[in-house]
Design goal:
Blueprint (H helix, E strand, L loop, with lengths): L4 E12 L2 E12 L3 E5 L6 H8 L7 E6 L2 E3 L4 H6 L2 E4 L11 H5 L6 E2 L2 E2 L1 H11 L17 H14 L4 E5 L7 H16 L3 E5 L3 H7 L2 E6 L2 E7 L5 H9 L19 E10 L3 E9 L3 E5 L6 H9 L6 E6 L2 E2 L5 H7 L1 E4 L3 H5 L6 H6 L7 E2 L2 E2 L1 H15 L15 H13 L5 E5 L7 H16 L3 E5 L3 H7 L2 E6 L2 E7 L5 H9 L2 H7 L3
Parallel strand pairs: 3-10, 3-11, 6-9, 9-10, 15-22, 15-23, 18-21, 21-22
Antiparallel strand pairs: 1-2, 1-4, 4-5, 7-8, 11-12, 13-14, 13-16, 16-17, 19-20, 23-24
Helix pairs in contact: 13-14
């Protein structure tokens, strides 16, 4: 690292419709550093990264690379100059293999045909980083976390000199995230510049050399990471002090009735003999590594995955849920881990996303009663905190935090008895996280039974009343949250103290 700037932005401005995404931003990024970008959703972090990587041209201002002014017309032009981005929305070809996706557009060929053996050889040379994916596996068959690894390997494999990583750990467990951090440090030491966009302030402080804070499209400050703390970053991001602890939980009454009972539930090859209970007004946390079977158990409860054994009871009555439609009718709601792929129709209006599963409640004779629909929506939006004046806009224009609130609204509109929340704060900023924490605790206090699944162990410890740990498809521990620690949960998730030491602490 010689300290000379690789990237210079001078008074950059970018507007989308009536929204000013970046306003007069000037910034220098030194070569060979890891540079953090933090801010609330909508602060301009992703827009700034996309301008650097050629996805968006600036409306005003200029960008310099190695001291020369550049004006990229596409990501391909930026890539030719050694700059690329790993965006939040994965850009993979689902029906192609892992290796083909990594080297797409840069394939080895022989006599005009793609040389498959050469691609596999190049993959194995690249896989010294330790992700260990099957290079011949179809990308569409992989878990979200493994698809994220493919994106990372593709960027690394193109020998770029700057990589913008926009929330690269959002779909990774702590062990995989640690491996990624090791790769980033190694690449940085070799001279590659990293721009790390993340809502995890702890990760940013641990990993980055410098941190830039953005608020409402404006640059607040850039400073060495050694001079920052989580509290100072939050104050810069939101303009006020924000309590970083969790809201006080209200324990359910000792005689609270059981809402959900699982006995010996199994999903072929994924979940084995799972038994648990959740009472009215209780938040039960489900912890474990990615791939441990947490989401698959949720799918078995919600009817999106087939059960091969076991029984499910709701309110003390056996129920045979074989599809999400049956689950919704029975009073079970589920927030999936990927709101964009499984939870929302991004191009449709906000209000349509909320009422889509509940059309019978707002229609008569097959015709939607608009007045009744809007009246019901206002009530739920006030409760959840969705900006009501924007309900006619496509849901994609909202920040990640507000998209997640729309997803909550969608299921709370049906007044469920059980809410399964799978990674409810993934990809949202610190302010939106606290709002979602408050909402979950408030919903439980009102009598809703909640199954909380999260890769953030602090989140599980801070919100749940009881915690189950899952490993290799089995529930291996039950812990009272009052006695739980993140370290203890991680030990249980790995299964041994030695594995815990190898994976690092959360």
């Amino acid at each position: 690292m010689d300290g000379a700037p690789l990237i210079e932005l001078r008074r950059v401005r970018k507007q989308f419709g009536g929204t000013l995404a970046l306003n007069d931003v000037s910034l220098s990024i030194s070569r060979g550093t890891v540079h953090g970008l933090v801010g609330e959703n909508g602060a301009g972090k992703s827009t700034l990264g996309k301008i650097i990587a050629g996805v968006h041209p600036p409306d005003a201002g200029e960008m310099l690379v190695d001291g020369r002014r550049v004006s990229y017309g596409s990501p391909r032009e930026a890539l030719a100059d050694g700059l690329t981005i790993i965006a939040q929305e994965l850009a993979l070809v689902p029906r192609r293999s892992v290796a083909e996706n990594i080297f797409l557009g840069a394939e080895s060929s022989r006599a005009g045909f793609v040389d498959g053996r050469a691609i596999l050889r190049r993959y194995h040379e690249l896989d010294t980083f330790g992700f260990g994916l099957d290079p011949e596996a179809t990308v569409g068959s992989l878990r979200v976390a493994d698809q994220q690894k493919v994106e990372i390997l593709r960027a690394v494999g193109r020998e770029t000199r700057l990589i913008v990583m926009d929330e690269p750990t959002a779909s990774l467990g702590r062990d995989d995230a640690r491996k990624l951090f090791g790769i980033m440090r190694q690449l940085s030491a070799q001279g590659t510049t990293m721009i790390f966009v993340s809502h995890s302030l702890g990760d940013v402080l641990e990993l980055c050399d410098e941190i830039t804070v953005l608020k409402d499209g404006k640059l607040v400050r850039t400073s060495p990471a050694s001079e920052e703390t989580p509290e100072k970053l939050v104050l810069g991001m939101v303009g006020r002090s924000l309590e970083l602890t969790f809201p006080e939980r209200q324990p359910p009454p000792p005689d609270a009735p059981l809402v959900l009972s699982l006995d010996g539930v199994s999903v072929p090859g994924l979940v084995h003999d799972a038994s648990l209970t959740i009472r009215r007004g209780e938040i039960v946390g489900l912890a474990g590594l990615i791939g441990s079977g947490r989401s698959e158990l949720a799918g078995a409860i919600f009817g999106s995955l087939p059960r091969s054994a076991g029984t499910i009871e709701l309110d003390g009555r056996p129920i045979d849920i074989r599809s999400p439609r049956q689950a919704v009718r029975a009073g079970v709601a589920m927030l999936p881990e990927s709101r964009k792929d499984l939870g929302l129709v991004m191009g449709r209006p906000i209000y349509e996303n909320v009422t889509l599963p509940h059309l019978k409640r707002v229609s008569s004779g097959g015709v939607v009663r608009s007045r009744a629909e809007r009246r019901s929506l206002r009530q739920i939006f006030d409760e959840v905190g969705v900006p009501s004046p924007r309900i006619g806009e496509p849901v994609r224009v909202l920040s990640g935090g507000n998209q997640q609130k729309v997803l909550f609204s969608k299921w709370l509109f049906g007044e469920p008895r059980l809410l399964i929340a799978d990674e409810p704060t993934r990809g949202v900023d610190v302010g939106a996280k606290r709002a979602i924490y408050d909402l979950l605790v408030r919903l439980a206090a009102s009598g809703l039974a909640i199954l909380l699944i999260s890769s953030e162990l602090e989140e599980v410890v801070g919100l749940a009343h009881r915690i189950f740990v899952m490993r290799d498809g089995r529930l291996v521990n039950e812990v009272d949250a009052a006695a739980a620690t993140s370290e203890g949960l991680l030990r249980a998730a790995f299964g041994t103290l030695e594995a815990m030491a190898a994976g690092g602490s959360p």
